[in-house]
Every structure is written in C-alpha cells, then in structure tokens.
Amino acid sequence: MSADMGTVAQMAEVAPAQVSGTREVLRRFVRHRLAAIGTVVLLLLVVACFGASWIAPYEKGAQDLLIGPTGPSAQHPLGTDELGRDYLTELLFAGRISLAIGFFVAVFATVLGTAVGAIAGYRGGALGELIMRVTDLFLIVPGVAILALALEGLGSSPTTIVLVLAGISWTYIARVVRSQVLSLREKEFVEAARVVGASTTRILVRHLLPNLAGLIVVNISLATATAIIVESTLSFLGFGVQPPRTSWGNMLSQAAGLVGTEQVYLLYFPGLFILVTVLAVNFVGDGLRDALDPQGKQL
Q: SUPFAM superfamilies, per this entry (predicted)?
C-alpha cells in the first residue's frame, strides 16, 4: 500500500508538459518569419517609445509658434503640427501610453479571465455554471458603449482606462481556460494529486496552470493588439486619453481636423504607428501559438 501511495505521490508531483522544451519552442518561433519580423519591429517600437527621452530629437510638447505646421524636413523628419511641435517626438511619447495601456489591459484581463475560467472549470457544478452565466452577461453587453459611459463617469486617466478595459476583456480567455481545465481535471496526474490530499489551490497552481502557460502567453500577445485598437478608438471618439496626455488615438483625433488642408498627411502617421504595432503583435502571437502548439490541439 505504501508503495502504491508513493507512486501516486510521484505522479502528482510531475504533471505532463503540454509544450515542447524551451529550445525547441524557440527554434520553431524563430523559423516563423512573420513572427521574427514582428518581434524585431515590436522591440524597435518599444525601445523608441520608452527611450524617447533620449532618442527623440526634441522635448515633448516643445512648441515653436514661429514655424507653425511644416512638412517633413531634415530638422523634423515627420514635420510639425499647428503649434510647431515636432511630430515624431509627439508620436514616440504618445506611443508610451498606447503600448502601456495595451500591455497592462492584456495582462490584467488574462489574469482575471484565467482565474475565473480555472475555478469554473475545476469546481464545475452549480458554482461553475453560475460563474459562466455571469461571464455570458459580460459578453452580451455592448462593450464600447459601456466603456464610453464608464470613462465618462470615472474619468479617463490611463489607469482608469486600463482597469475599465480589463474589466470587460476577460471573458474570452475565461471561456477558453474553462474548456481546457474541464479536460485536464480528468487527467491521471490531477487524480493522483487529489488522492494524496492536494488542496484545490495547489492543484490549480501547481498542476493545471503550468499546462495552460502557452495558452496564457498567446492570449496576452493577441489581447494587447485588441486593447491598443480599442483604446485608440475610444481616444479618437474623445472618451479615452485626454490632452495634455497624448496617445496615438487622440493624436489621430486631433489630426482628423486637418482633412482638406495641406497638413492632412499628419493624419496618416498615428494610424500607421497603430497599424504597424497591431500587425507586429499579431505576428508575434501567431508565432507563439505555432511554436507552443504546433499541432493546433490546444491553442
């Protein structure tokens, strides 16, 4: 009997890995050309935006009303706006907020969704059904309208935007995690953990979540792209980041008033930064998914 319990304990300690070794995953990721390109582009954007204090050619918000709006030149690679501010500098500093909001929304939403989905999937029964019905309620609520109302009432600081966006963005990952946990909880290593008296928390944290690591990482990358788009949309509509803070979304909104003028080209640059960033993040997400789950069984 003691030998049997020893075997069970050993099985409970070592859950089967759902992804290949780190080296093999990295090899598959590097071979994914679009993912490799996306990674380089994303790293360049992150370094440029968060290193803008040292990289940008001018100080943020520095005005030169004497020159006003000008086209691209050697001194101002992307030109200047109506206040004579260097547009490249403004874009880089605005990127800090857009990228940070996108990343933290994705992380917080993924953590919340993973916790909700894991509990609903593992516990099951009436509690699991109740949790998923609440999740369904969040799914049917018109997200952009709720966001606009919430930000109108709570204010539109970057922190508020992150919390509100994360608060309605967790439902997808919750449903996916629940379906995976429903399958994993019947596996032999989970049964073994129960036999040796492991608590629910230990089983979730020690045995189930490591097998969902690939799913979680991929969701964070793809959710980042979605959050950047949503924040940009809200800021463009006037509900997101407000001046004097700048994001790519409200720069796009400000430049929209230049349609029909000689400075209409300023409208293109924020949109281009958003497009390139979202594409790069999506390419990285696709590469991670293919590297972590090459047969497409889990992700």
A: MetI-like
